[in-house]
Amino acid sequence: MLDHDTDSYYTISRAFLGGEPAGSLTRDSVVDNITLYWLTGTGASAARWYWEAGQTQARAKAAGQAPPAMSVPVAFTAFPGEIWAAPRSWAETVYPDLAYFNEVDKGGHFAAWEEPDLFATEVRAAFRPLRKS
At 117, phi and psi to the nearest 5? Predict the structure, then answer.
């Protein structure tokens, strides 16, 4: 949780330095999140996806190939405070089976934490077409 880019450090530090918190990213929620990972010993398992994805990409690059395509429907919401602004064309290139794409007006790298209601709305909208009535 604390191993992030400088923009994420800035977002987190605002909750501690008297600045305006980023949405619901408050001092208490940051401490709660860190404590949850620490007490349950799940920091490493939470980071495992990044390691596995990096290894897959490195093997593909070494072999002169593209990484394997995703084989599940993917939803992508572009949040304005994210480190890299990803246009739809990028998302479609990486996720050929892109089922949902939307750009919203607030939120950043910690969108589910910063703007939980908006994030939940996006998840519902993304997977509504896949639900069985």
Answer: -65, -45
Q: What is the pLDDT of residue 89?
A: 94
Calculate the alpha carbon distances from 53 to 16, 57, 67, 86, 133 in Å. 32, 6, 9, 18, 34
| Angle of helix 27-40 versus helix 43-62 axis, rounded to 10 | 80
Phi-psi region of 31 (alpha: psi -120 to 50; beta: other; left: phi over 0): alpha
Low-confidence ranges of the chain (pLDDT < 50): none
User: What count of Cα atoms within 13 Å lies in the side-chain half-sphere of residue 119?
Assistant: 12
Can you give the pLDDT at residue 2? 54
Residue 21 neighbours by CB distance under 10 Å: 17
3-state secondary structure of 100: strand
